Amino acid sequence: MKKEYFIGVDVGGTFTKAALVDQKGKVFSRIQVSSRGFSQKQYFARTLHDISLRLAAMAHVSFDEISAMGVGLPGPVDSEQGIILSLTNIKGWNHFHLAGFLKKYLPFPVYVDNDANCMALAESRLGAARGARFALCLTLGTGVGGALILDNDIYRGPFFLGGEIGHMPICVSGPRCECGGIGCLERYVGNQAIASRARRIFGKTVPLEEVSRLARRGHAKAQKVWQEAAACLAMSIAGIINVLGPQVVVIGGGVARAGVALLGPLRRRVRQHAMRHLKGKVRIVRAALGNDAGFLGAALLAKEKIGAR
Amino acid sequence: MKKEYFIGVDVGGTFTKAALVDQKGKVFSRIQVSSRGFSQKQYFARTLHDISLRLAAMAHVSFDEISAMGVGLPGPVDSEQGIILSLTNIKGWNHFHLAGFLKKYLPFPVYVDNDANCMALAESRLGAARGARFALCLTLGTGVGGALILDNDIYRGPFFLGGEIGHMPICVSGPRCECGGIGCLERYVGNQAIASRARRIFGKTVPLEEVSRLARRGHAKAQKVWQEAAACLAMSIAGIINVLGPQVVVIGGGVARAGVALLGPLRRRVRQHAMRHLKGKVRIVRAALGNDAGFLGAALLAKEKIGAR
Q1: How far is A281 from chain B (nearest CA, A)?
Q2: For residue A7, what are the β-bridge partners?
Q3: Which architecture characterizes domain B5-118+292-305 according to CATH?
């Protein structure tokens, strides 16, 4: 098998991570740059070109051995046409034909997708969902990102908004969400919601890392914080399980660092809500690839798009 | 195009409906028999043979012009192998290899699927979801049946339990459901739940048809019954919309006869919960094929399985 190289780029609001990987997902070089100035499209394009040169040089790979690039972005993307549908973190990129624009700057094809989709693809091919044809992947952080692998492929849906589990309503009324909905899961288990839950239960501000640490040691109030979050999460996850029957649910993101303090009550709650026929069949596990999942998935996207399986 | 004929059978707990249709879904003859005695497998097989002969004779079609038969059943089915996974209405059929068994009795191939999947297939090809590659179909009755059309095909999932929207939890605790879960949608909007909601609101027993009639005339209590049911339904439907982005949601079954008394508040509630990008894009409509959807879908399943598109 001829060696092929791909570049995976994970564009975040603050930092952008990139790596050069081979077709098996092995990382040969990696780099992190500031996302500042990316609202200037030319600057972004030149940065990608520059990153590619540097990644190739670092890995002692010739620039023309790079077959394709994948770019993950924090917003919905029409991945067929390579158009960013909306992006809140970087100004002026709504409805921007990124893949087409980059053609002028880069000698290899560029494929674009949502970052949660990239993360799910990486976990599906190399991580915690490996071997499962059907998987739900969540990233718990400031927001609640989600993506679905159905029949071994990213599910994008007709409007390229597939997998947005963070916007499943879990309350008939409930608070208004940025997405335009009300009562969304994200408003109950996002970073801020958990922090204010901790504040309510402890009667003072306690950092989430501390809440996790205390919960692991058996501290009742700390456990209550995670139990409440787990109860909310379980409703949406069990809803997806009963409707789509994924074989595995992968939980990633900063909030997942709570570990068993969150996963323990989450598994119990999901088992309560899941249909009898599914109770024992769906594993709920932590993500395996951490912060690398974004660029790895972007690189795998590029690989699979050009058909180099 | 050579004319081909298919038999669609919709096995219910009380009655079984069957029809002879052509590849376009045109009905040439139809029949209804009692489902009594179907726990005796030989009797069921002979009945299907007898039905086929009669349907052919009624339509003046030769028996050997029948290309295939589709059978819809009220329970989960491994439609690839033709195995009934579980069935509560007919005894002794759990894990029964129905398609294999019927080979001895019928000269044409038989394909088996869940009845909600058949209904969704019919609505997708000939009914209210025609033209939509992504659709959610619900049947509101004693239970809440559901099925998904994703990328123009029935979504079955790895465990053949796809689309069970009636078992999405809408409450963290809530009543225990027959499925083994708790707080399932079905427990809030099934026939009995709506009837007891009406009893609570009216202070006496009122038949659902009457509640619908009063609601259409503007009766406040009657409207409240449907508004509450709509609020529950909207949570699950909006959850599916935000995660899968179907282009159309089709509502069928006896409870859907409430018509605009239910659909009006349902559309408003779903619009509140749906993401901004999806609010205007998803139509919520009544099923178009009524009670015929079951056998039509079963016949279409058979047609599509043998590849006569």
Answers
A1: 9
A2: A20, A69
A3: 2-Layer Sandwich (3.30)
